Amino acid sequence: MATSEGVQMAAELDGAARGRPSPEALRVTVPSAVIAGFAGKEAVPAAASPAAARGDRAGAPGTEAAYSVSLSVPASPSGLHLAQLGACASVRSDGGDAVRVAPSPAEATPGPDAGHHTAEAAAPQLLKQARFHSQPTLTIRTEEPPLQRMRSVSRSDSTRDRRFDQFKTFSGRLERQLSNLRGVPLPQDPAEVEPADSKISEEETDDDEVPTADRYFAALEGPELETLRPTEVSALPEDEAWPFLLRFPISAFGMCLGVSSQAMLWKALQTEPATAFLRVSPGVNHALWWASVALMGLVSAIYLLKVVFYFEAVRREFHHPIRVNFFFAPWIACLFLVKGLPRPVWTIHHVVWYVLMAPIFCLDLKIYGQWMSGGDRRLSKVANPTNHLAVVGNFVGALLGTRMGLREAPIFFFAVGLAHYVVLFVTLYQRLPTNVQLPKDLHPVFFLFVAAPSVASMAWARLCGEFNYGAKIAYFISLFLYMSLVVRINFFRGVRFSLAWWAYTFPMTSAAIATTLYASAVTTVLTRALAVGLSGIASVTVTGVLVATMYHAFVRRDLFPNDVSIAITQRPKAKFSKILAHLRSSGTDVKELVFSVSRHAGSDASSESPSPMARGRCGAEP
Question: How far, in whole angstroms, is CA 370 from its chain's centroid?
Fold first, then answer.
C-alpha cells in the first residue's frame, strides 16, 4: 500500500547571486509511490541499503518518512533547460540518507549533497545563457514572523471576477463581439478559463434581447416588480453586495423631484399675493434652488457612470414594465429647476423648454403607444401608481411653457396628458382582482394620485390666465384625494424606509403650490390658512425624508440594496430546493393538488411510453 510522504520542496533561484533571500520552502504531501516512481529503478537500491541498515524504521508498513526535495528552478521561463545543464533533484529522508534523482542513467551513483553542488555549478552558466523578459507581476505581502516576505505571482485575467461582466459595457464579451465584426478574432488565452457556473450565468443573459414583459412578470413579484420570486434564481450573486453603480436605480431621481419642488414652493410663497404677509426672504428660494442643482448634478453624474460602465443594466431598467416610468423623473426635475429659478421665468430662452420637452415627447410616444397597442405591456396589465409620472411631465411642461410665453405647444402637451390621465385614473380605480395588493413599505406611491390633478390645475390656470372653473375642478379632485389618503393612518404604521418614501414629497408639494394659487384667486382666511398649513406639512415632510435618506445612506448604508429586478435570467431556471421550500410554505390544498397532478402525469407517461427495459424485452420476444 502506498503511503503518503511529507515532501518539502525548495526552489533555488538566483537569489544568492543577486543578494535576495530565497523563497521559503513549500511542504506538500505526496504518496510514497510517486517518490519511488520519480526516483527510478537505479536509485531505489541506493536508498534501500541505508534504510535497511537503520532497521525497520523507514521500511516497515504503515510508517511514514519525510523527504526533502530540492528543485532548481530558473528565474524566468526562458531557463527551463536545466536538464541540459545537469541540474538535478535530491530526495533526503529524516535519517540523513539521500537519494539522488538522476535525469540520466550516467548519474546513477549520487552523493549526499550532489544535487546542491550540481545546481550551484550550473548557476553561472544559467545566468549567462538565460534571457530575462520583463513580465507584469502581482506582488503579495505575507505578514509572517519574524519578518515580512515578498512573493511574486504572475498576473492573470483568470483571477478577475467575471460574475458582473454580463452587465458591463466594456467587458471581454463586448471586445470579442467588436473583434468579430472587424474580422479579427482575439487569440484564446489558455489561462482565461472560466468556471462552469459563470459560463452558465453568462449563457442565461448573453442574448442581445432583454427579457420580455411576460418574463418580468413571471420572475418578479410585488406591485413594482422589485422582488425575485422564491422559485427563481438570480443571474448575479444574492449573498453579497453588488457594485454600487449596479445597485443605483433610476428611481433615485425621486429625490431630485422632492427637493426641486421645494424651490418652486418657496418661490410661490414669496411672489403670490395670498402669502405676502409671510414676508418670505428670497434667500430661501436661492438656497433651495442651488441645493436642488447640486443634488441633481450628483444623481445625474452617478447614473451617467452607470450608463457608461453598466449599460446592460440601464437597458434592462428601461424595458422593465414599471421601472420605465421613472425615466420621466430626470426631465421633470429639470423642468422644476427652470420653474423655480430665482429670476423671472419669461426671461429664459424658449430653446430650453424645447430641449427639455423633447425626451418627454419621445417617452410619450413609446409608453402611450404600448398602452394603446396592447400586448404584454398594455395598460391593464402594467397599471401602477408610478404610471402617473408618465402623465405629470406633460402638465409640468404645459405649466412652464405658458409661463415662458409659449401658447400652442403647451396646449398640445396638456391635451395629450389629460387624455391619458383619464384613462389611467379609471384603470387604477378598476384594478383587476388578480393584481397583488400593495405592501406597506410601498404605500407612499399612492400619493402620486395627488400629483397629476394638482399640476393640471396650475397648468390650466396659466393657460387661461385665471383660476377658473376648469382649474378649480382639477384642484378639488387633488384636494379630495389628498384628504382621503391622509385620514388612513394605517398607511403610515410600520413602514420600512426606502426610496419609495420620496413619493410623499413631490405630490404634497404640488398640492401646496396649487393651494397657494387658489388662495390668491379666492382670498379668505380659510384658504390662506390652508395654503400655509399644506406648505408647512410639505416642507417638514421633505426635510424628514431627506434626513432619513442621509442616515440610511451614510450611517446604516442600506439605502441601495441589490437591485434584483434587473438580474433575472432570460429563461426560467429554478432551483429544486427553492421549489420545495415554496411548496412547504404553501397550503395543504396546494400541496395535494401538485402531488396529485404529478402522480397523474407520471401514470400517463408510464402508460403511453414503456421503459427502455420493457422495450428491450418486447424486442427480444419472437
Answer: 27
Q: Are strands 98-101 and 137-142 parallel, antiparallel or unpaired?
A: unpaired
d(CA 596, CA 472): 61
Secondary structure in 3-state letters for 482-496: HHHHHCCHHHHCCCC
Task: Give the pLDDT confidence score for residue 210 in this predicted structure.
Answer: 77
**Does 261 or 440 have the greater pLDDT score?**
261
Q: Which of 294, 426, 412, 297 is nearest to 360 (CA)?
A: 412
d(CA 131, CA 363): 63
Instruction: Determine the Cα–Cα distance for residues 4 and 111; give it in Å rounded to an integer.
Output: 25
pLDDT at residue 537, rounded to an integer: 96
- Report CA torsion sign: 244, 246, 248, 253: positive
User: Which tens digit of pLDDT belongs to each residue from 299-311?
Assistant: 999 999 999 999 9
CA 53 centroid distance within chain: 68
**What confidence score (pLDDT) does residue 375 get?**
77
CB 121 within 8 A of CB 82: no
User: Which grid coordinates are listed for 620?
Assistant: 427480444
Bridge partners of 8, per DSSP, are 27, 68
Element (H, E) at 220: strand 220-221
The helix/strand/coil state of 468 is coil
Q: Give residue-wise pLDDT tens across range 570-621.
A: 766 545 445 555 555 555 444 454 444 444 444 444 444 444 444 444 444 4
pTM above 0.85, yes or no: no
Given a contact cutoff of 8 angstroms between Cβ atoms, the answer to whether 220 and 568 are in contact is yes
Mean pLDDT of 22-43: 47
pLDDT of 220 over the 90 cut:
no
Place of cell 537505479: 42
Distance CA 382, CA 435 (A): 10
Which residue in the block uniquely carries the three cell numbers 516497515?
60
DSSP annotation of 551 reads I
Greater pLDDT, 386 or 441: 386
- Residue 61's pLDDT is what? 45
Q: Which residues contact 161 (CB under 8 A, 6 or more apart)?
A: none
Residue whose grid cell is 521500511 = 59
**Where would I find the H helices in 54-149?**
82-85, 114-129
Question: What three-state secondary structure class fits 252?
Answer: helix
Phi/psi of residue 229, each to 5°?
Answer: -65, 155
In order of 264, 268, 273, 281, 293, the CA distances from 523 in angstroms are: 21, 15, 9, 22, 33
pLDDT score at 573: 54
Angle at 542 between CA 544 and CA 517, to 5 degrees: 145
* CA–CA dist 529, 324 (Å, integer): 39
Tell me what pLDDT residue 466 has.
93
Alpha-helical (H) ranges within 374-446 are 379-382, 389-403, 408-429
Please give the grid coordinates belonging to residue 163: 460574475
Place of cell 503511503: 3
∠ CA 557-559-561 to the nearest 5 degrees? Answer: 95
Return the H-helix or E-strand segment holding 61: none
Top pLDDT among 546 and 443 is at 546
Give the mean pLDDT of 441-449: 80
